Amino acid sequence: MKRKITLKEIAQELDVSVSTVSKALSGSKEISEDTTKKIQAFAKLYNYKPNNIALSLKNRKTKTIGILIPEIVHHFFSTVIRGIELVANRRGYNVIVGLSNESFTKEIINMEMLANGSIDGFILSISKETLLKQDYHHFNATINQGMPIVMFDRVVNEVDCDKVIVDDLNGSVKAVNKLIEKGCKNIALITTMDYVSVGRLRTQGYIEALEQNKIEANSNLILKIDDRLDVENHLDDLELEMEQFFKINTIDGVFAVNELYAVTAMKVAKKLGYKIPDDIQVIGFTDGVLSKHASPSLTTVSQHGQKIGEQSANLLIDRLEASNTAYDKFSSDDELETDYIKVVIETKIIERESTK
Amino acid sequence: MKRKITLKEIAQELDVSVSTVSKALSGSKEISEDTTKKIQAFAKLYNYKPNNIALSLKNRKTKTIGILIPEIVHHFFSTVIRGIELVANRRGYNVIVGLSNESFTKEIINMEMLANGSIDGFILSISKETLLKQDYHHFNATINQGMPIVMFDRVVNEVDCDKVIVDDLNGSVKAVNKLIEKGCKNIALITTMDYVSVGRLRTQGYIEALEQNKIEANSNLILKIDDRLDVENHLDDLELEMEQFFKINTIDGVFAVNELYAVTAMKVAKKLGYKIPDDIQVIGFTDGVLSKHASPSLTTVSQHGQKIGEQSANLLIDRLEASNTAYDKFSSDDELETDYIKVVIETKIIERESTK
DNA sequence: TGTTAACACGAAAACGTTTTCGCTGAGAAT
DNA sequence: ATTCTCAGCGAAAACGTTTTCGTGTTAACA
User: Fold this and answer.
1) Is the C-beta of residue B18 closer than 7 Å to nucleic acid chain D?
2) Which percentage of chain A shows pLDDT scores above 90?
3) What's the domain range around A234?
4) Residues A103-116: what's their mean pLDDT?
């Protein structure tokens, strides 16, 4: 077992100083060609690689991005991570992942754990509990310590930082318009409680689309699911709720704010004897595995999670590397006027079998 | 913008030495009660938190685990990550994620990037390309440098390290037995090419179960999918291949080595007019979203990905913390006899609508 | 021969910790 | 009055780098 070799050991072995080794390895012309060759050969032989931690300490930057998300077993979030990892890696950064599990406390603990030097900046999506509490002090505290944050998807006005969001409103408008265009008269909405911003926006889109088409929104046709309970493990409840909903109302179109709701709606509808898309047409949000492989496969609003991740990472790294140089130029810690960017990722409707 | 405060700054501010501050904060009784109180109050006021990087450098351990997996947008792998993160966090570790994207080269690059001090140990699952090439030198090199590795799911005998695997063979035997027990006479197997160890093992389980029941395996009933092509984006090909398969053979039971194949098989079967589970019963492997939400929902062999992650993390951290003390005790770098552990996670059949 | 410039290298500081050891002064013991 | 003990604190080393600033040697120049 040969442990990793250090500059000091190379120096001792070759009877030169540590500084000489360092310079030789970086190809400094301060060192003679002879010594340089000798040192480089030796280093290669022993597979020398500089220690990242030491570099981080010296440079006061870790080349690591912290991702903080509510949940990882989730198609959308894992797609975003993939996007982040892709550009992070390409630009020489690593990615460290923390899960808040939708909990306010875990979110804070995780942030504090990472904010003490482990990372250069955050990319995060806010947990449901935090959204409910509307307590965002930990984000602002982190930013005030000089650590940049990029928020995606679940964002909030109270925090001043770069943001990457899906065009939820527009996407929903498009989806509902599509249903109308395909002949639906009584379009139901299956959504979440309002405190989740994406749920609220998608609901708003539904209403706007109806208004655009001079259709009066009927509150009976809106089903708000309480997703504080762990839906995945209470599928029966969900189905029951929807069954009631379908029985009470006459419906020929469904817009659901995520694919689980959409797929479940289809299942329930089929069970009640409706044919899809003949009797009822369905459009979901989020283009995940479920949409693709459901039968009938689901027409859906695609969020381009990977693009969101890529954009977020680019935004963060841009700011990180800009702040280096800006820092040198002005050397003023305070208030170099920062205007933050909000990137909106366009959605796209992917038509499959659940619409005519 | 107040940057993070350091020991040195506290020391200056309070006119004591850095050592005194450090000791006071750690509650050393070497420091008088007065000074201790003063320092602790000041530190709390300025929200002092020790810098992780400096600690890592000093302690020569980062309290960070590197995860290296082929793909993250994947139910099984993300579940494993969740398990790892859970126990890592509980035991004071962070988790850094690298994606090989099934590529040999990216696997190596990622390993080298992380092996230079950024992490204390690896938890990984081998990429397909690496399995194909059968080149495992990078794993052994890493281990020889004193960095422990835990492999899960896709493991290999050529590398000596702790391993956590699913009981693929037994799981498959159970699944096929279940089909036989439910009255299936002509059971088809839909599997991958043999170089993926889990595919091979599950195939083997299929054959063993048939033998146990004195049924002769019929090679016509085995469909090997070439998954080198990106299946997700070539669903049509997949369906076509299966359609041919179903047309040629008489089949009343299907065992598929993953849920995508199983769900697709159901889709094709339904299209051909078969009723599930009346005409054909289906069992898949991996209990993911698809299994749960397919219609009919899929009976499947559950792999307990989270448990795999938890076990892997515990194994790794145990070894990390043991090696500390062992190191102190013997102070011998070389060959303290290491016997590695292989943990087998039992599978469980979850019965749903696709079997009688 | 004496001054200078270039060259090749080393010493030391710095990043932020922890820890070992040594020092100082005050009170107790002799 | 002298030695001892101990409490309370500081200096310095160490972790592995990079970088700035010397410093000594040699060759070139006046």
Assistant:
1) yes
2) 84
3) 168-303
4) 96
A86 close to A310: Cβ distance less than 8 angstroms = yes
By C1' distance from the Cα of B9, the closest nucleotide is C16
Residue B55 lies in a domain: no
pLDDT at A249 over 80: yes
Q: Report cis status (omega within 30 of 0) of the bond before A277.
A: yes
Is A78 within 8 Å of B74 when comparing Cβ atoms? Answer: yes
- Together in a domain, B257 and B177: yes
Instruction: Name the residue with tokens 């993939």.
Output: A82
B89 touches strand C (CB under 7 A): no
* Nucleotide nearest residue A26, measured CA to C1': D18
Q: Which nucleotide is nearest to B7 (CA to C1')?
A: C16
- Strand C contacts in A 51-80 (CB under 7 A): 54, 57-58, 60
The verdict on a CB contact (< 8 Å) between A289 and B294 is no
Does a cis peptide bond (omega within 30 degrees of 0) precede residue B70?
no
Number of independent structural domains in chain B = 3
Residue A222 has pLDDT above 80, yes or no: yes
**What is the pLDDT at residue B98?**
97
Calculate what percentage of chain B has a pLDDT beyond 70: 94
Residues B273 and B172 in one domain: yes
Task: Write down the pLDDT at residue B322.
Answer: 87
More confident residue, B316 or A356: B316
For residues A19 and A23, give the distance between their C-alpha atoms in angstroms, rounded to a whole number: 6
A to B CB pairs, distance under 8 Å: 157
- In a shared domain, residues A293 and A175: yes
Q: Hunting for tokens 């984000």 — which residue is that?
A: A139
pLDDT band at A288 (very low <50, low <70, confident <90, very high): confident
At position B280, the amino acid (one-letter code) is I
pLDDT at residue A216, rounded to an integer? 92
Chain A CB contacts of B115 below 8 Å: 49
Give the CA B6 to C1' C15 distance in Å: 11
**Nearest 5°: phi and psi at B323?**
-65, -30
Contacting residues 257-286/A vs strand D (CB within 7 A): none
A94: number of Cβ within 10 Å: 24
A47 touches A103 (CB < 8 A): no
* C-alpha dist (Å) from residue B344 to B69, B88, B153, B307, B339: 19, 20, 10, 11, 16
pLDDT value at residue A197: 75
Assess if residue A1 is contained within a domain.
no
CATH number at residue A241: 3.40.50.2300
Instruction: Give the DSSP H/E element, type plus range, for residue A175.
Output: helix A168-181
> Residue B38 CA to D11 C1' — how many Å?
22
Residue A57 lies in a domain: no
